[in-house]
Amino acid sequence: MFSSLSNTVQKALSAECGVEDIVVTWERPHDASHGDLATPIALQISKKVGKTPREIAEMILPALEGEETIEKVEIAGPGYVNIWLTPTALVGALGSVRQACTAKVKRENEAPVIVEYSQPNIAKPLGIHHILSTVIGQSVANLHTHLGFNTISINHLGDWGTQFGKLAVALDKWGDKPVTECSLDDLLALYVQFHEQAESDDTLEDAAREAFRKLEQGDEELRAFWQSVVDITMAEMETIYSRLHVSFDHTHGESFYEDKMQPIIDEGKEKDVFVEGENGALIVEFSEESNMPPAIVVKADGATIYLTRDLATTSYRITTWNPQAILYIVDVAQSLYFQQLFATVEKLGWDLPHLEHVVFGRMRFADKSMSTRKGNILKLEEVLDEAEKRAADVIASHGDRIQTQDPEGLATMMGQGALVYGVLSQNRKMDMVFDWDKALSFDGNSAPYLQYTHARARSIVSKAGDAVEPNTIDALSDKERSLLNTLLGFENSLQDAQTSLMPHILANYLFDLCQDYNSFYNDDPILKAEEPARSFRVYLTCLTADVIKTGAQLLTISVPDRM
């Protein structure tokens, strides 16, 4: 339908203005009173053809009025062309919505897209700050996969560095049991104790550096200690990832690249990209125009750092997968670091894919009691538990108005959804405020609102029986037309969220869909309507539920069939 309408406009402009090779774009007006579709083509080519947008729009009108799919055409404002489609044309387009709910065939022969996210440090529990990279990254990966991209998701662990030397020293000095019997909380307590003691004992830092040096050189006892710490940490993290519906194709720690750094160091020296800096350290310098300070590649004592390992990581990923893009979902505070990393690999002259630092801001709680405590971190597990507890309280407070045979399972679903949607419904580039009351509300832009709307729609379909796709409809109510147009915007919302790497676009689309569906539900009878309106409205209800479920799952959120 879009192709046919575009061809009609192109032919009219070619005949009237002699304009060729133009791209006609269509938009869905936010205000239903402006029609089902609109094109700004008259404004876009006005200067090119030397006519006012309104003059151009008037040339297009007669051609569009002859299209059988069009009910009405109007010129709006300075030159927008608004069209109202026939009910048959609108209903006929619904097949694209059904297709958009199904994952596209994987583009096996296309270079993959690598999405790196979460990136926790070993020996520390996941903190609340990890929710951002973890669920934004998973949603970005899900969107790419759903749209057919060959997607590779990677968790890049901080499992190497002097923190392991510190932990080894702390366990030796203050530990009261073998590392294999320690919990992650035990390890964190030892790490905190090390830093407290190091404030008054300068020898501890030296001892930690020496312990890590031995670890790098392959000391068997320290290697066994390190592996135990990794195993303890990963076991606990996997439990949290499962609760968040997060998974990875590969989990690679910085240690994975231990034997891959030296060739990069040698290459950088040979190409004069890495030069000697203060006290013999290896550094990379950037142009004055970049306004970036030099970056250390190898420290003066010969130790490698994050940049060394990230250079090896980039090289490995390019060699192994030949990706079209690598997306790093990382805090905005690391912007300078990624600018330096990307500039360094360019100076090395590698054949690079698209590299992008997908930034996000900071999150704080409106509830000040949820702030990070000194000497500890606010654990993600604790916040998930708090979310589920608050969700259970909300369910209990609603009494019989919430129908469920599994209140505990529903509380889990609502709590996880409230926390995740509270993040993903906000623009990732901005600092975020998380508000428990808003996140658990049934009335606003929240996961419970989506979940309740889905359950309401499923309940109607269950009572109605099969939802049969309609062949034709002679007329549409205002609420039917509005809901239908919103459903037809689903595919565009997926595309926009994926290309912009902005999951909140999809989240806000789902909120708009729920609002339109509930408005339709309140105004137009469904089960009590006469045929063919009854079957059509049941079909719209079923399709709405499918879209909500698909979109929510892409955002890592589950929706119940009964609530």
Unreliable segments of 5+ consecutive residues? none
- Average pLDDT level: 93
Helix % is 40-55%
Widest sheet: strand order?
6-5-4-10-11
Structure write-up:
With 563 residues, this protein is an alpha/beta fold. The protein has 3 domains: 2-85, Arginyl tRNA synthetase N-terminal domain (Gyrase A, domain 2), CATH 3.30.1360; 113-255 and 306-364, HUPs (Rossmann fold); 396-554, Isoleucyl-tRNA Synthetase, Domain 1, CATH 1.10.730.10. Helix content is 52%, strand content 11%. It has 22 helices and 13 strands. The strands form 4 sheets. A 5-stranded parallel beta sheet has the order 6-5-4-10-11, with helices on both faces. Strands 1-3-2 form a 3-stranded antiparallel beta sheet. Strands 7-8-9 form a 3-stranded antiparallel beta sheet. Helix 7 links the parallel strand 4 and strand 5 (151-157). Helix 8 packs across helix 10 (203-216), helix 18 (447-464) runs antiparallel to helix 22 (533-554) and helix 21 runs antiparallel to helix 22. The two termini are 38 Å apart. The mean pLDDT is 93.
